[in-house]
Amino acid sequence: MSEGSKPLPRRSDPEELLGRAIEGDRGALARLLSYVEGGGERSRAVARLSYRAAPPYVVGVTGAPGAGKSTLVDQLVEVARRGWPALEAKGAVPAAHSEAIDQVAVLAIDPTSPFSGGAILGDRARMQRHATDSSVFIRSMATRGHLGGLSLAVPDALRVLGASGIPISLVETVGVGQVEVEVAAASDTTVVVVTPGWGDSLQAAKAGLLEVADLFVINKADRPGGAEAAQDLRQMLALGGERDWMPPIVETVATSGEGVEELWAAVAGHRAHLVASGLLDARRAERVEQELRRVLGALFQERLDRLASSERYRGAIEGLRSGRVDPYEIADELLGSS
Ligand SMILES: Nc1nc2c(ncn2[C@@H]2O[C@H](COP(=O)(O)OP(=O)(O)OP(=O)(O)O)[C@@H](O)[C@H]2O)c(=O)[nH]1
Ligand SMILES: [Mg+2]
Question: How far is the CA of 177 from the centre of ligand 1 (A)?
């Protein structure tokens, strides 16, 4: 067989890559995630392969820039690998909660730049001690061209992690914009990180983080003002009225690891609540619907962009300028035949 008639190199075939990722090949997994980021046909092929797989349990960690999210995630990885802690309280400990966790993935989402910004490098450095540990998979993600941006790329990426057999994923996002808040809300347990000091909790509230939080962390508890921050949060939560789940508030010092065990226990407690109440499945089912909407939205947008660069569209604009027709008529006409 001549060189030219060979099929595509098998190592770039998504199915082959997924097979290898399941066997623990981290290079293959990294490549699949690059496909997801890159968008286009390859990302679709990856989605097709992985969408039936059970997703990992997703713990979203969000909060203002510099709150200590990466430092905290780095510590959480360490603690999480010891497994879900047994919850003594209330006797409500499903058997699933004593299971070991053999692998943990970390996704650090960078919404600031599609061209791999400085934040990613900082995060990498902060999590470097896990770099040679084969049970920890760390990845920074941006959206180079994924249709629908982060809000679709992240669920796709999580599904790939699930399909590869990774049971837990920690997702770090900066909670600043609508999309980041959406990404955080797509987690099973959303941890909102604030720091002591006036106004931080208020900022979190303004950014819409109060609604998505299942758990609050007051990090940098080695600084003064932790108790006041907790008080602020409690007051704001109380304004929201009764809820099924009142988000616990945990104080941590991420740099020393203080409070991180308690944080992990609180995550486990929330997970137990979701499982026991049936909310885990209900939330995931709801997310599937939201995802379909986003996919449709992205596809409509794509269609609109194509239409807007067509000859027909330019012709229609001419008609509009001459005042012969109104925009609604033209829109109907364009849509009817697009
Ligand atoms: N004093 C103190 N400093 C901390 C603590 N946790 C993190 N830091 C420091 O805060 C700075 C920011 O920490 P990161 O973990 O990078 O914060 P981040 O929220 O991931 O930051 P971005 O990803 O840039 O939004 C670093 O210099 C950390 O060493 C803490 O508990 N106490
Ligand atoms: Mg960070």
Answer: 20
CB 315 within 8 A of CB 337: no
* Spatial separation of the C-alpha atoms in residues 48 and 15, rounded to whole Å: 10
User: Hey, which of 62, 255, 256, 263 would you mutate to test ligand 1's pocket, going by the most ligand atoms within 8 Å of its Cβ?
Assistant: 255
* Same-domain pairing of 270 and 335: no
For residues 102 and 125, membership in a common domain is answered with yes
Counting ligands in written order, the one closest to the CA of 63 is 1
Q: Which of 2-16, 33-47, 240-254 has the lowest mean pLDDT?
A: 2-16
194 and 318 part of one domain: no
Kindly state whether residues 61 and 120 are assigned to the same domain: yes
Dist. CA 35 → ligand 2 center (Å): 23
- Rounded to two decimals, the pTM is 0.86
Report CA(239)–ligand 2 centroid distance (Å). 30
Q: Please check whether residue 8 lies inside any domain of the structure.
A: no
Say if residue 115 is in the same domain as residue 223: yes
68 touches ligand 1 (CB under 6 Å): yes
The number of folded domains in the chain is 2
Give helix 14-22 / helix 150-163 axis angle, nearest 10°. Answer: 60
- Token pair of 28 as six digits: 């293959």
Measured from the Cα of 252, ligand 1's closest atom is 31
CA-CA-CA-CA torsion sign (235, 236, 242, 246):
negative
Do 267 and 288 lie in one domain? The reply is no
* Ligand 2 centroid from CA 272, angstroms: 27
Query: Residue 169, SS3?
Result: strand
End-of-domain residue from the set 277, 293, 316: 277
Let me know if residue 17 belongs to a domain: no
pLDDT in tens, 264-303: 999 999 999 999 999 999 999 988 898 899 889 888 988 9
Q: Which of 277, 299, 325 is the last residue of a domain?
A: 277
| Domain-located, residue 46 | no
Angstrom distance (rounded) from CA 77 to CA 136? 8
Residues 31-42 pLDDT 10s: 999 999 888 889
Closest ligand 1 atom to residue 223 Cα is 1
Using DSSP bridges, classify how beta strands 249-251 and 104-109 pair: parallel, antiparallel or unpaired.
unpaired
